[in-house]
């Protein structure tokens, strides 16, 4: 780790979390987090002088800017209160449930909002102080929706992009937000506002029309400027992806293929392995999936002798009440299903409340005959794309909720409405019985899509539009 981070950056990424995790080892205090975003932006960060502004992931951790693995990192400290009110409160107990169509009830608390404003200001100040004259700043996700306007106010010379990784809801839902005007104002500070789906960009433009009566035309929004003129903010869909080649390479490794075989054997080599991989979040439809699977066992349409469901549920936002409740419900359900159906040698559900390194995930993807993505609402769902990218053998079937952003692109998946439990049960039965040729044909088309539209292409498209917007407004 060098002690000499940049003090002026031409390209600045701002996200709630830094792309590194703090370890407990003082000699080696940082580990790269496995997210795709850093992989996508790394080449850009290396060609221009880049910096990344974000929270180091622990309360009260004050760290000076530092260099890690060639990346210049600018930590933003959050106190215990900030974590509780800004991160767990407004970000993950107001915006998260509201934007996911109120699957859980959002809390509207003025103290949470005040903390959100305060922390967004801190991020904007950190970005403003590291950005060189005329730099490009790319802000990410719902935790930082006020940053674009705060940044423009401080630094009108900057080109500002914002990408929204989660859904943007229809106006009838968005309108609940007591601070709906301020949040739109915050986002409109960006030159390009990117969304996952065309529908999200449309919902945003509609909200802007309803709240401000600004003119919007094919994603170009005319925003008044303080001098009485106007500028254009572009709102458009840029579906995010993964670094598909990384999954492809891992899946070709003999040790990972051996691990996939070992996983199958350790489950008793059932005819079919179903797999679910999610953060333990109420948006993911884990309960619906378990219900459908449990009923198929009860109905005798499936038997533990032939089928096992492996459910990886990685721990997430564990101090937020809705997440605690969800965990209890899921673990009760898993316990009941296993209690009713397990035999001494076979288990209906192998439930794993852990997160795993990428190598182990790829082994699981290779071991699983069917991947179940049953989200009730999801910005994109990258697990669906990871599964496809890992299936170098052309095998495996993807069952995909029509409410996940990935459904717009992965049209050859078996689509399901997770609210329709009978439909979900029939879909699971039909994929288990799907003829080999049909299965391979679908996977081939899915793989083509995922390898062509990878995360590098996503960031290139966004940054090209951002650069063009600079030209247009100059
Ligand atoms: C989603 C959000 C990200 C967030 C991630 C993990 O994918 O779009 O912004 O970082 O979940 O959640 P966490 O609260 O642990 O950052």
Quick overview of this protein structure:
This protein has 474 residues and is α/β, with parallel strands linked by helices. Helices cover 45% and strands 20% of the residues. It is built from 16 helices and 18 strands.
Q: Would you write up a description of this structure?
A:
45% of the residues lie in helices and 20% in strands. By secondary structure, the protein is α/β, with parallel strands linked by helices. It has a ten-stranded mixed β-sheet, sandwiched between helices. Strands 15-14-13-16-17-18 form a six-stranded parallel β-sheet, sandwiched between helices. A two-stranded antiparallel sheet has the order 2-3. Helix 10 links the parallel strand 13 and strand 14. Helix 3 packs across helix 4, helix 8 crosses helix 13 and helix 10 packs parallel to helix 11. It is globular, with a radius of gyration of 23 Å. The site of 6-O-phosphono-alpha-D-glucopyranose has 7 residues, from loops.
Which labels suit this protein?
single chain; 474 residues; alpha/beta; Rossmann fold; 10-stranded mixed beta sheet; 6-stranded parallel beta sheet; 18 strands; 20% strand; globular; binds 6-O-phosphono-alpha-D-glucopyranose
Helix content: 40-55%
Q: Termini separation (Å)?
A: 39 Å
Level-2 CATH architecture of the largest domain: 3-Layer(aba) Sandwich
Helix/strand class: alpha/beta
Report the portion of residues in β strands: 15-25%
Characterize the biggest β-sheet. 10 strands, mixed
What is the averaged pLDDT score? 95
- What's the CATH first level of the largest domain? Alpha Beta
């Amino acid at each position: 780790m060098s002690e000499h981070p940049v003090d002026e950056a031409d390209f600045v990424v701002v996200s709630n979390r830094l792309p590194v995790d703090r370890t407990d080892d003082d000699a080696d205090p940082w580990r790269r987090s496995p997210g795709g975003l850093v992989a996508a932006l790394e080449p850009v960060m290396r060609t221009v002088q880049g910096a990344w502004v974000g929270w180091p992931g622990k309360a009260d951790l004050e760290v000076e800017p530092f260099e890690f693995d060639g990346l210049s990192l600018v930590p933003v400290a959050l106190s215990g209160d900030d974590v509780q009110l800004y991160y767990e409160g407004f970000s993950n107990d107001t915006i998260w449930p509201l934007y996911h169509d109120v699957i859980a009830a959002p809390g509207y608390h003025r103290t949470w909002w005040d903390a959100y404003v305060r922390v967004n200001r801190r991020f904007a100040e950190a970005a403003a102080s590291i950005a060189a004259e005329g730099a490009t700043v790319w802000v990410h996700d719902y935790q930082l929706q006020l940053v674009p306007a705060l940044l423009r106010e401080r630094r009108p010379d900057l080109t500002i992009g914002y990408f929204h990784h989660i859904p943007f809801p229809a106006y009838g839902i968005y309108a609940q937000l007591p601070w709906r005007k301020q949040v739109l104002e915050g986002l409109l500070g960006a030159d390009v506002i990117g969304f996952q789906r065309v529908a999200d960009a449309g919902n945003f433009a509609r909200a802007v029309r309803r709240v401000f009566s600004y003119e919007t035309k094919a994603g170009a929004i005319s925003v008044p400027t303080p001098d009485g003129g106007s500028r254009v903010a572009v709102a458009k869909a840029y579906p995010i992806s993964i670094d598909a080649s990384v999954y492809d390479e891992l899946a070709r490794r003999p040790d990972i293929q051996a691990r996939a075989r070992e996983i199958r054997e350790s489950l008793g080599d059932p005819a079919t392995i179903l797999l679910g991989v999610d953060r333990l979040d109420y948006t993911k439809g884990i309960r619906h999936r378990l219900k459908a699977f449990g009923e198929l066992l009860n109905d005798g349409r499936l038997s533990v002798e032939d089928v096992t469901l492996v459910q990886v549920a990685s721990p997430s936002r564990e101090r937020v009440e809705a997440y605690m409740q969800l965990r209890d419900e899921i673990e009760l359900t898993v316990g009941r299903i296993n209690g009713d159906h397990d035999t001494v040698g076979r288990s209906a559900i192998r439930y794993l409340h852990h997160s795993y390194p990428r190598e182990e995930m790829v082994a699981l993807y290779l071991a699983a005959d069917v991947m179940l993505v049953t989200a009730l609402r999801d910005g994109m769902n990258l697990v669906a794309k990871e599964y496809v990218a890992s299936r170098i053998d052309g095998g495996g079937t993807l069952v995909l909720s029509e409410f996940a952003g990935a459904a717009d692109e992965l049209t050859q998946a078996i689509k399901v409405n997770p609210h329709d439990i009978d439909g979900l049960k029939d879909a699971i039965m039909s994929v288990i019985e799907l003829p080999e040729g049909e299965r391979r044909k679908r996977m081939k088309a899915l793989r083509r899509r995922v390898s062509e539209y990878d995360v590098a292409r996503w960031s290139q498209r966004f940054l090209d539009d951002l650069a063009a917007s600079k030209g247009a407004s100059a």
